[in-house]
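I have been asked to look over a protein record a colleague put together. Alongside the sequence sits a line of tokens, each denoting a local backbone shape. I have pasted the whole thing underneath without changing anything:
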Amino acid sequence: MTALDRLSVTAIAADVQAGRRSAVAVIEDVVARLDAYDAIQPAVWISRFEPDALRAAAAAVDARVAAGETLPLAGVPFAVKDNIDLAGLATTAACPAFAYQPEQSATVVAKLVAAGAIPVGKANLDQFATGLNGTRSPYGIPRNAYNRAWVSGGSSSGSAVAVAAGLVAFALGTDTAGSGRVPAAFNHLVGLKPSKGRWSSTGLVPACRTLDCITVFTSTTEDAALVDTIAAGFDATDSLSRALPDVPRARRRIGVPRAEQCRWFGDIESEFLYRQALASLDAELVEIDLAPLDEAARLLYDGPWVAERTAALQTLLLDNPDAIHPVVREIVEQGFGYSAIDAFNGAYRLAELACLAEAMWQQVDLLALPTAPTSYRVAEMLAEPIRLNASLGAYTNFVNLLDMAAIAVPAGTYASGVGFGVTLMGPAGTDRALLDAANAFFPAPASPPPLDLEGRMETVKLAVVGAHLEGMPLHWQLTSREAKFVEATTTAPTYKLYAMAESVPPKPALVHSEDGAAIALEVYELDMAAFGSFVTEVPPPLAIGTVTLADGSQVKGFVAEPRAMTGAEDITALGGWRAYIARG
């Protein structure tokens, strides 16, 4: 199977409306894409309309265009997260025992269809939208579109993968604690989380009813803005709907966390990508105190708001608890332990924290935080499902509690191919301002890496400084493992290089030193198994550690124990091992 290009909301709508393409032709392409990708990731979907039904829906759109209707989303295929009602398909929330047949589509879905969009099917999710990782569904695990060993992010897992894989042009997700943002980051997507009440939640299975938002995944901010113009608006059938005016917002002062308040959970690659993204912002960066936001975030799962999830599932929890995914059940059952007194005390504290957040908006125009502090492999998440999932919400859990709008945008790529993202946040009503800011700060994101269609091999980058350089006596240990040359570069100017005494063949020792220099090296890429076997052959006093490169990124590389200095010659001034060997 060849790679699938992504679909564009704006391009499809413009073409179909102008008659350059028919909606039927668009759907024929989508059907072929669905068939091809089903062989790779069947767990993306819980249910779909049959191809003939999709063709009929497309023909109806073509007829409306031919009759002179102006359809802003003419012929645009989209996916619906399966906790949002779509007439004609069951709503399951990824729980077969909960499934029901809705009489009508959710308000947002109906508005999109009226605008000419064509729903393809219901996307998989973490059951009852409880999770940020995408592994908690009896319908299978939608894996990251760019490296299937890694999580897709959740709970809107299938929605994100469907867009990233080019199966639909946009997808609806939901967001209570970050479910519309984390999957966007990991799959190189834009994820717009509207202000609470801006989009109707009528027809949405509640997770936390007072916090839930329907969201959208797209490939560009332009596409997200177009969908927002259709989906937004007051809905009298939704008791929490709000007629929010658009609030203009400058983008001169961008709030970022204090360095000591950033949490990376040991992921130095995330920290590097975030600092790189901040360096690209044309604005004043203002450090803010993240502590009030962190405290608000803890109320969601370590406070009485978990009882709101319990309230949504109370009947099923009491009557058929075994129907609920065991990890979801473990989380939601905790709500039975909270009292009304706890709920009121939590509400009082949240109001105090909201006041602190309001004061923060007087200091900064927007926030720019990492969407997620790290990413995880599926195997890791399954082994430690609650603790690792909680890590993913470090920068997302407070947003709905503190009544903010947010948009996640692509901002880098991990070595694994998984996406890294930054989220821009503002007060309620700043949705359009955030879209404008995202377009200004992160315009036309670079093309994501190739889709993982055959099972991407996981790799490690390794820096070598001596006997493993090309042309040196131990280079064969890399070539025999099919190591791929990445680049010739230098370390950061914080290393010293020594020629070890009595080493056969001659080998250097690289030692970190603040008064050091830049040392020439070569970077290679090995698959995980090859890297593991290579490490077992590294003799003491050498070892494999982490080396910082000239551009600030970090890779695995040779380092040395203190005993390597015994009798060694400092050759730092030569700038590298090749110069030492040439000296003779």
Q: What stands out?
A: The mean pLDDT is 95. The chain is about 30% helix and 20% strand. Residues 340-360 form the longest helix (21 residues).
